[in-house]
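Today's session is about reading a structure prediction critically. Students often jump straight to the picture, but the first step is always the sequence itself: look for stretches that repeat, for charged clusters, for runs of hydrophobic residues. Only then move on to the predicted structure, which in these notes is written as discrete structure tokens rather than atom positions. Here is the chain we will use throughout the hour.
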Amino acid sequence: MARMTLEVSKLLERALSLSVEEQEALADSLISNLGGKVDEGVQAAWEAEIGNRIADLDSGKAKTTSWGEVRKSNLAKLPHAH
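Below is the predicted structure for this chain, in token form.
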């Protein structure tokens, strides 16, 4: 995996502040622009996993974390500019 540069870290921080719908659109655009075709088996596996996660959320089986806690944790992992 490529090392995350400060510029990429800043972009990630901005991306994490977007709505879920905006993040989804951004992720889809980035994946589409990688130049390679998405393996149909991988796509099917992701769709099944997404379905499982939604079912876990709907049933209360999944434990969630507030956006504030997630954001604070993610920001703490970013390299700091000097």
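Discussion point for the tutorial: The mean pLDDT is 86.
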